[in-house]
From TrEMBL:
Name of one Pfam family that matches: TFIIB
InterPro entries xref list: Cyclin-like_sf, TFIIB, TFIIB_cyclin
Keyword rRNA-binding: no
Organism encoding this protein: Ambispora leptoticha
Keywords: Transcription, Transcription regulation
Keyword Transferase: no
Name recorded for this polypeptide: 14400_t:CDS:1
GO molecular function: TBP-class protein binding
Start and end residues of each Transcription factor TFIIB cyclin-like domain: 3-55
Length: 76
């Protein structure tokens, strides 16, 4: 994420929360923003806002070798 500059200027906590949301949706145990927000200490809106940028750059950020299916990601 840092190398791509996708979330440049966002707080590290916001970036981490959005990444957790993205990766959890690629796994067999997806988590909602409602579940992640209180643990990360950010709002659901913050996660959703950052996730929009990750989703837009998903093809650049995720490669086939990562084992994730980009089609499984919810659209923002």
């Amino acid at each position: 994420v840092k190398e791509c500059g996708t979330l440049a200027g966002k707080s590290p906590v916001s970036v981490a929360a959005a990444c957790i949301y993205l990766v959890s949706n690629l796994s067999s145990h997806p988590k909602s923003t409602r579940e992640i927000a209180p643990v990360a200490g950010v709002s659901e809106a913050t996660i959703n806002n950052s996730y929009k940028f990750l989703y837009h750059d998903k093809d650049k950020l995720l490669e086939d070798k990562e084992g994730g299916n980009c089609k499984a990601l919810p659209s923002p």
